[in-house]
Amino acid sequence: MKKKKLLLFIGPLLLFIVSGLAIKSAFFVDGKLAYRSPAAEQGERWTPREQALEDEAAATEKANREKPYEEAEYRAFPVVGSRVAIWVVSQLHLLFAAFVLAVPMFALTIEFIGYKTGDKRYDDLAYEFTKLLSVSFSLTAAFGAGLTFMLIALYPKFTNYLAHVFSPTFLPYVLLFFAEAGFLYSYYYGWGKFSARVHLFLGLMLNVVGTCIMLIANAWLTFMSTPSGISESGAVISTWEAVSNYTWMPINIHRVIANVAFGGSIAGAYAAYKFLSAKTDEERAHYDWMGYIGNFVAIAGLLPLPFAGYYLASEIYAFSQTMGLTMMGGAFSWLFIIQAVLIGNLFLFANWYLWLGMGRIEGAERFRPFIKYLLIVVTLCFMVWATPRSILATVEEVQAMGGSSHPILGFLGVMSAKNTAVNILILTTYISFLLYRRSGKIPTVSWAKMGNRIQFGIFVAAASIVIFYGVYGYFVEAAVRIKFSVPQVMSVLLAMILVTIIDVLLMRNAKSTETRWGKISPISQYVLIMLAVTFTWIMGLMGYLRSGLRQHWHVYGVIRDTSPDAFTPTLGFATQVVSVTVILFFALISFVFWLAGLSGKKVTAAVEPNPTLPAAQGLRPVGFEAPATSSVATTSGGHQAKAGSSPDSGGSVQ
Amino acid sequence: MNWIIILVVLTGLVVLRRFKLGMLAWLGVWWFAALVFVRFGFDVAVPMSVVKLYMGIVSLGLMAYVLSDRNRLKQVQEPLVALLTERSHAVLLGVIALAIPSAVAANIYFGMTAPAKPPVFGRTVHPAPPTELNVFDKEFDLVSLDNPYRHLEEAEPEEFATRVAHGREVYYENCFYCHGDLLAGDGMFIHGLNPIPTNFQDQGTLPILQESFVFWRITKGAPGLPEEGGPWASAMPAWEKFLNEDEVWDVILFIYDFTGARPRARHEVDH
């Protein structure tokens, strides 16, 4: 046996030595037999060729020594080019940053609910959300550093100009970043180790600092599109004016809301992933509830988003009509058709999830017949919302239509129809939510019938106002029509507020049936994941639109893009880049999910419910009823000493 | 709208309600009814790109309808499972197994034997104008430019009418060959043009444009279209070479007057 082992060792060694000797001998013989010029044979050192090579090397060395220093304007990135490289890295940075900014917002809100109600399940849920932050924060920072280095390396002249304008904001940004790291890690690792109020304060400061960082970064990127505070040659006149440019505040508002919607959807996708891989009913119940709240946050953010988008678009028009026309009627208008399809999907998925959610509530059967009608309304509004004004058509089709818009469907392609469709979509989604909320409740107040009628009347009135202004918009000129969106939006918002108030009063002391958390169809979890993917895709597409609107300018009208990439890519190429970025993001966020799952594997002890807790029910937002057991897979330990379940645990309602 | 088709579809749906169709069959009926309505329910055929878009949304809606309820899903699954597993359905299964590749083959055959056509592309109808325009040896600021004769509409209606009449002459001497007798983009040259000329009767054209935009388009034509967002397949001549400034403004007055459209006011965000 020993001999065999020795042979196994010596054999390869000998083979290696023999091979080396053979190669060495071959080179030796080749050197001896190689052709030599007569001059070399006669002992002369240099052939003319060797002399020429020597001279060339000397000339090159001399030229290198005398080479003057030149500032590079651009450097190339291998294979995909500089623009695509920057595009992907900045988009990934932004997606993780949006997630890192959004999660603390609703984690803090949920923690606060837990603090006020004394219900530990909310605290556990907030901690579960926060678990996702730690790795995401590191990835955000890593992509941020990557983006900075790539900007310096690939676009040095432009980066230098941005530094010229915004250098006073750099130091505060760095300091705020340190502060955010401090607050984030003390918020995460300090869970259960500080008093509740101190911990809530840490969460609040994490949100404040995070938002301030976003405001600074927003100033840089909005300045690129709508510069202000500079002279005609680009010299800085006022840094504050450069910061508070035309689109700064609209982007701030739009991003805060969109971040919440995006963060909610990603957290929902995490819950879906955990639900689908859950082993026990307790785990399923917990992650079903978590997914529900993630979806609730996402949809709450989605509903006001179109109006924030209108505000941003109107500011772009106000800054430059050319840019506005490029966006809505020009080269980028087709992106809005894709966006419309994706937003229609979001509304459909949101409603679909709520309908599936009714499956977990006893007594929801009585609302099932309504789903058919809600679905018809959602589908019709989706079709109107996605109808293009200028249609992709063959020559024959264009000739038959007499232009690029259809004589009848063309009416659905304008803003009057779009505004009407989106407002009805919002109203329908709210009705789906209301039906879901009322599924497990039977009102006991004496005026229940009257209350239902009033609620129905409010919905009819709001829908009538929306449709009236939608139709009337076709008979007035654009200047008047654009103002109709205000009463349309206000009627929908007012209806939602009034109906909610009536519903809360109507459901006081209502009889409750059981909500079987975890008993939802697994299809719902795939719907949650589809919601997250769609949100991410929309963010990528609209991010490209906002940035691409500058066209051949780094800073619109100030620093011209003279690189080889100074052209607007085709829509197909742009969507491919965005799609690849979305895939990369989900690959990375899956890694984050996996790590977050690892951190929760150690402690799985469920906390005994404490039925003596005060209710404080009124503080709980509509639809946030917790499952009986939710302290699954958490390590927080909880900072609320009076942890336990509230009297309505098990899905009963306030 | 093609009311006969719509009536046939509705009648068909009502008649089918008398039969005890399963959920799977109803899904097929609804999908097919939607397809017939979208494809044939309009007097002017809906382009295939929109038909596909609508049917995609309808399919998604039907999928959501089935998958949002366990009973409905079961009702759809049961006949499919029976088709695949029960011996009594062997013939039908065989027919379906043959029909699917046959349909694919037929699709390929008809696709390959169809006459060659130019590719379909999304036309950007309203290109972004420049901020300044150099024409007739003058510099025009397109952001603030107004039709110098628009104010005559109220101040001096007779003079305005004369201008419009002059614009009419200019139009029928130069523009109607492409843009048509009734300004509907259907002139005699239309068969040689792709894309076809702008239809001024379309309410999505003149009312959403300022007169300065139309002035830019007429004077500079296809050669003056911006590089961004190309390619611009347009045969519009640069009329600055054939008309003078007054003639351009007058023809603008005429096309708005003839179609009853009002020029778009400034600082609006619509469309």
Describe the SSE topology.
The complex is a heterodimer of chains A (654) and B (271).
Chain A (H helix, E strand, L loop, with lengths): L1 H32 L4 H4 L6 H19 L15 H36 L2 H12 L1 H22 L1 H34 L6 H30 L13 H5 L4 H29 L4 H22 L2 H15 L1 H8 L4 H25 L10 H19 L8 H7 L13 H24 L2 E2 L5 H25 L5 H4 L3 H22 L4 E2 L10 H26 L4 E3 L3 E2 L10 H29 L55
Antiparallel strand pairs in A: 1-2, 3-4
Chain B lengths: L2 H14 L6 H18 L7 H20 L2 H16 L4 H24 L18 E4 L2 E4 L10 H4 L1 H23 L31 H10 L24 H15 L12
Antiparallel strand pairs in B: 1-2
Helix pairs in contact in B: 1-2, 2-3, 7-9
Q: Any idea of the CATH topology of the largest domain in chain B?
A: Cytochrome Bc1 Complex, Chain D, domain 2
Number of domains of chain B: 2
Largest interface, C-beta closer than 8 angstroms, per-chain residues: A-B, 74 and 61 residues
Oligomer: heterodimer
Query: What is the beta-strand fraction of chain A?
Result: under 5%
What does this structure look like?
The complex is a heterodimer of chains A (654) and B (271). The longest helix of chain A has 36 residues, at 82-117. With 654 residues, chain A is mainly α. The model of chain A is unreliable at 602-622 and 629-654 (pLDDT under 50). Chain A folds into two domains: 76-363 and 512-654, no CATH class; 375-438 and 444-509, no CATH class. In chain A, strands 1-2 form a two-stranded antiparallel sheet. A two-stranded antiparallel ribbon of chain A has the order 3-4. Chain A has helices spanning 2-33, 38-41, 48-66, 82-117, 120-131, 133-154, 156-189, 196-225, 239-243, 248-276, 281-302, 305-319, 321-328, 333-357, 368-386, 395-401, 415-438, 448-472, 478-481, 485-506, 523-548, 571-599, and strands at residues 441-442, 511-512, 553-555, 559-560. Chain A is globular and about 120 Å long. Chain A contains 22 helices and four strands. The N and C termini of chain A lie far apart (78 Å). Chain B is mainly α. Chain B folds into two domains: 3-104, no CATH class; 132-259, Orthogonal Bundle (Cytochrome Bc1 Complex, Chain D, domain 2), CATH 1.10.760. In chain B, strands 1-2 form a two-stranded antiparallel sheet. In chain B, a hairpin with a 2-residue loop joins strand 1 (132-135) and strand 2. In chain B, helix 1 (3-16) runs antiparallel to helix 2, helix 2 packs antiparallel against helix 3 and helix 7 (157-179) packs across helix 9 (245-259). The model of chain B has no long low-confidence stretch (mean pLDDT 87). At the A-B interface, helix 12, helix 13, helix 14, helix 15 and helix 16 of A face helix 3 of B.
